[in-house]
Design goal:
Layout (H helix, E strand, L loop, with lengths): L1 H65 L1 H8 L6 H18 L9 H23 L7 H15 L5 H14 L2
Helix pairs in contact: 1-6, 3-4, 3-5, 4-5, 4-6
Length: about 170
């Protein structure tokens, strides 16, 4: 019995010391893991957020460049007939799109879909307006017809996509 009591006198304190060491090491490891996660998050913020913001900026620029108002002003005088002007407008839109295609990696699928829909709306607007005019008519007739269609719809075809990009940027910084 004395042996058992002596054994317990040694085991109980040793067990308490081991349990205390276990809790201390566990706490240290948890703190170290939290610190590491914090550092990773800071590195992510320092590296990825500026790249994503630049992608959003490029997509806003893309949408502004393909908006009919800016597109028509920028390319006016580059063609003489409706058919040439239509082809030039569509080519410019495709070139801009292909130049910014990689930016989809940095944004949500819903926002990218909105951007593609805006581009398709602009192209459809150009094609429909071109269908309303003679192919050999002056290019100015196509511009006039595009502006008339925009006035009829009472909205720019790129406005919804611009709102979606801006909303996603706001979510990213909240």
């Amino acid at each position: 019995m004395d042996l058992l009591s002596d054994f317990l006198k040694l085991i109980v304190p040793a067990g308490l010391v081991l349990y205390g060491m276990y809790l201390t090491v566990k706490l240290l490891l948890e703190r170290e893991a939290d610190r590491y996660q914090y550092e990773v998050k800071n590195r992510y913020t320092d590296t990825v957020v500026p790249i994503r913001l630049q992608a959003y900026e490029r997509m806003v620029l893309f949408l502004e460049r393909i908006s009919p108002n800016n597109l028509l002003l920028r390319l006016s005088g580059s063609s003489t007939t409706v058919l040439e002007f239509q082809q030039r407008l569509l080519e410019e839109i495709r070139d801009e799109y292909n130049h910014n295609l990689s930016q989809q990696v940095y944004m949500s699928q819903a926002t990218w879909d909105q951007i593609q829909a805006a581009m398709n709306d602009v192209m459809m607007l150009i094609n429909q307006a071109s269908g309303d005019t003679r192919p050999d008519a002056p290019a100015l007739d196509l511009s006039r017809r595009i502006f008339e269609r925009i006035i009829q719809k009472d909205r720019q075809p790129t406005s919804d996509a611009l709102k979606a990009v801006k909303a996603e940027i706001q979510v990213m910084f909240m």
